[in-house]
Amino acid sequence: MISTGLTKMTKIEVVVVGGDVPAVRALFQAAGATGFTGVSGISGLGHGGYHQGRLLFNEQDTLELLITVVPDDTAGPLLEGLGTLLKESSGVMFVSETYVSRPEYFA
Amino acid sequence: MTTATATPPASSAPHAAATPPADRRLARARLQSEVTLAARLLAPMWPLERFIAVNPLGGLEDRPFEAALTAAEDAFGARGTLDEPAFRAEHLRGRITDGDLIAALIQRIGPDAEATLTLGGRQWSLAEVLRCDLLHGAPAPSPVRAARTVAERTSPRLADLVDAQTAKWCSAFLGGDAAGWRLPGRSLGLYGAWRELASADRSLPAAARRVLRDLPERADDALLDALDRLGISPSEHRGYLQAHLTCLPGWAGHVRWRAQHDGSAELVEYLALRVVHESVLLATAGERRSAALPSQAPNAAALQSPAERARTVASVLGTAADASAGELQALADVLERLPVPSRTAVWLDAYEGHYRDRLLSQLEHPRAHGGGPDASPARPAAQLVCCIDTRSEGLRRHLESLGAYETFGFAGFFAVAIRFQDLLGGQPSELCPVLIKPRHEIREEPLAGAERQAARRIAGRRLLSGAEEGFHGAKDDVAGPFALAEASGWVAGPVAAAKTLAAGRYGAIRSHLARRVEPPVPTWLTVQEGFTLDERALMAEVALRMMGLTERFGRIVALCGHGSHTDNNPYGAALECGACGGQSGGPNARTAAAILNGPDVRERLAAQGIDIPGDTWFVAAEHDTASDRIELLDEHLVPASHQAELRAFATAAHAAGELLSAERCATLPGAPKSPTPQEAARHVRARGTDWAQVYPEWGLAGNAAFIVGPRAMTQGVDLGRRAFLHSYAATADPTGTALETILTAPLVVAQWINCQYYFSTVDPEHFGAGTKTIHNAVGGIGVLSGPGGDLRRGLPWQSLSDGDRLVHEPMRLLAIVEAPLERIDAIVERNTVLQHLFGNGWVALAAREHPSDPWLRHTPHGWQPWTTQEVPAR
């Protein structure tokens, strides 16, 4: 159920190794995303086995979660670029509908 | 958790005046990812003033080592190992033995190596015939770059022009700041600035300049258009962009670093500049793409066929006349199991095996004596914690020989990742490995009552800096040099002569003058502001557990960072501490000592089971690896009760430095070969101040092993300053957290250093910086060989060899770990970076759980005995 006044957008969550984070951020920028949130030190189990979360002195080889929210018409190109990247990289992407109260921040 | 807001660069603003068609937006996004993927072949290149060692093939570590070398050969035309004549020369002089070759062949082809075949009525093992082929087969031809641009294939003249234009604009845009002038329009980014000026570039034909007037505003659009004009389809983009990125990998690598570091230049911009140039120049010159884009294999025809190889081997074995056609065919089949391009990999295994077998054998029965960390219950005279840097091994060995001193190895940033602002102000230094970001701001402040001294020192520094800037400013100015020569020539000439002919005396006078103008000031660091108590306690516990120093503390524990002070050496940062981001580690040692001396931190440590006695004092020090001087830092903070021990330790450290100098003189070009320690010390000090000295020290040349374990494992063994030594006690690390940190951080940095030395040596043209004698510095970011061309990557030839004699033996790193094997397995299993390094052959891993256990080799099939069974030569 959606409250009145909220605007539908697309939320994209990407988990990649720290070394690939600049590439994903560049892609966000090039596609027109106006911001993102990053969460470092992600751990988890994937088809490649368990991935260590936080490493004390190495931020390049730990996993990071990047979250961005974009208008639906921006999502297409961004997903195209991320899809190309993730075909050749370890990482996962989740795409979902989301709703925001201040759409002008995201467009 | 971190949150950030993206700010698009000016040249790639996401919202143009009119919304572009959907297919263009898709193409842009796809292109961005293709550029990212293409650039993985390219290592980021840090500016020279903060030289960071990198594996030039770091982007290929997810592939087996040999496969990565093949990819590098195709992309760069680069060699990934020494060539066969070089390996055969090493065999001739005994550095590689027949036994090493046989062992390497057994490793490669397994038990079949002992099978036999018949030639002319005589029996030969497969290993023997393959060894014969290694020694006598026609060498593989030199590698040739296979992936090439349209211009490279159709018009080498225009390809050279594209390279020249790229180098010119990159130099102007990226090097201009440090050179004292800025490219107009620099705020528009690399592409934007070039776009503003390109149509006025008189070095281009008028027809080309006309086309350049109408370039799109965005770099990605310009690049897409140019690729389209060249007829490169989207499915070919990645390969084609890679061909452009590898034309001038130095400039491209530096742009990649900029993109990751501060976004001041992007690879899309760099590629747009190149590919637009190419498409416009080809079009205006009437030269077009003439063929499809197949990868070439220009060397395929030059390789000896299996039949030819068989005839060569049979001839060398003296059986050519007697062997039947069937026997020769069987021999050819055997030789096909080791294709010609793979022979150097076997040679490399043998070359490495020779060193590794002997090293592991030495470590089976270390000649431990004196006070090892766990050898004696008595309290040590003092303890010294050095950086893991290979150069520390010599210092530790000599200090231990002088008394009951214990030594430890730990990454030279001492677990404090700081941004440091010294007393003199200026740009803060980021003092930590580049794998992490500094999280703590530390300032240097004068002690209470020393403010006037501090003011005098700061004024003195400004005076010297002003004079230096004025001199260099006048030198770089258009008309200034003429006036400068008149005004300062009378003093500059004698100074230059003194620096050349009496470097040692000149250095002493300069130090004396510097002390007069900038007198030393007692200072302290703002550690309490930079770290919370929780952070300080955590850092202290992590550091002590990682190095296995959790009991038996001495009254003096010296934390010794290192740096290297040399004159007129653009590669000076390559000699500094890698764990401190290519800078001196003194401030880190001071910070760590201050933390470990804190009563509140010690209280927390005691609660965690680490009891540091009340009379233990941590003191900071710094080892100058060029002069082998060990300078104690913050001596004024040491209590009077410890001054006597401190003096005794300082005397021993000084003597150890002199002994190390004498050891180093044996291999330094032009050094006295059998000096007394005092003579050696004078000599190495003079080298550092000699502005004409191209061999101030050997840095980490020779590095080949990374040893993780207690000092008892290596004590008494002369490791020849070739091993990174990280102290570790498995018993002090029940969770394995410390070992995981060591393997995922210090080992990774050591592997980068190892690979930089390795590749700079095996192919100095592609991966090294060439000879220093023709270097031209470009605005603090790198050097060129001569007036133009690519930014040189890697290390200069004088860091690796003495003339034609290799000082650095190019071998991959061997990691040696004393820890429970299950613990190592679990750590590797959850860290992809270690799976790549160990599983793909970039680093070899040997381990044992207890000192009495035999060494085991980590293989894809589990742990195997290290020792290989040799096939006896017939």
Question: Would you write up a description of this structure?
Answer:
- The complex is a heterodimer of chains A (107) and B (874).
- With 107 residues, chain A is α+β, with helices and mostly antiparallel strands.
- Chain A has helices at residues 21-31, 72-87; strands spanning 7-17, 36-42, 44-46, 49-51, 63-70, 92-100.
- In chain A, helix 1 (21-31) runs antiparallel to helix 2.
- The model of chain A has no long low-confidence stretch (mean pLDDT 90).
- In chain B, 45% of the residues lie in helices and 12% in strands.
- In chain B, strand 2 and strand 3 (122-125) form a beta hairpin.
- In chain B, helix 22 packs across helix 24 (599-607).
- The interface between A and B is large, with 44 and 48 residues.
- Strand 2 (36-42) of chain A pairs antiparallel with strand 1 of chain B, so a sheet runs across the interface.
